[in-house]
Amino acid sequence: MRTILPVLCLALLVFSVAIVSASDDVGESVYAKSCAACHDSGVMGAPKVGDKDAWSPLIGEGEDALTQNAIKGTGKMPPKGGNMKLSDDEVKAAVVYMIDKSK
């Protein structure tokens, strides 16, 4: 029993890291395919990823609020950035990716 617990803890840790890495990969991929056209250039007022000054007040609204804005659309941004094939989870992964790159 004493050896099983450490092995289970290690397995859970590895599994958790794999899930986070997969989510990061999804966010980066969705960003590259569906968000970068506007958020790399700042076209139509889109906050550029990495611009801490532009993102700071947005990040202050919270991840959930930003995700809902991205899903429903806000300002000049259409729902899901115009890619209605994206799932809500994919949009959330892209939002998290942009937040992480803009802190």
What Rg, in angstroms, do the CA atoms define? Answer: 17 Å
Largest sheet: none
CATH architecture: Orthogonal Bundle
Fold-level CATH name: Cytochrome Bc1 Complex, Chain D, domain 2
Mass-distribution shape: globular
Strand proportion: under 5%
Number of domains: 1
**Would you report the number of β strands?**
0
Average pLDDT rating:
86
How many separate helices? 4
Low-confidence stretches: 7-21
CATH class: Mainly Alpha
Helicity range: 55-70%
Q: State the end-to-end distance.
A: 44 Å
Q: Quick one: CATH superfamily?
A: Cytochrome c-like domain
Topology pattern, helix = H, strand = E: HHHH
Which structural class do the helices and strands define? mainly alpha
Show the helix and strand layout.
Elements: H1 4-39, H2 52-61, H3 63-72, H4 88-101
Helix pairs in contact: 1-4, 2-3, 3-4
Verbal overview:
- The chain has 103 residues and is an all-alpha fold.
- It has one domain (4-101): Cytochrome c-like domain (Cytochrome Bc1 Complex, Chain D, domain 2, Orthogonal Bundle), CATH 1.10.760.
- The chain contains four helices and no strands.
Task: Write a brief caption for the model.
With 103 residues, this protein is mainly alpha-helical.
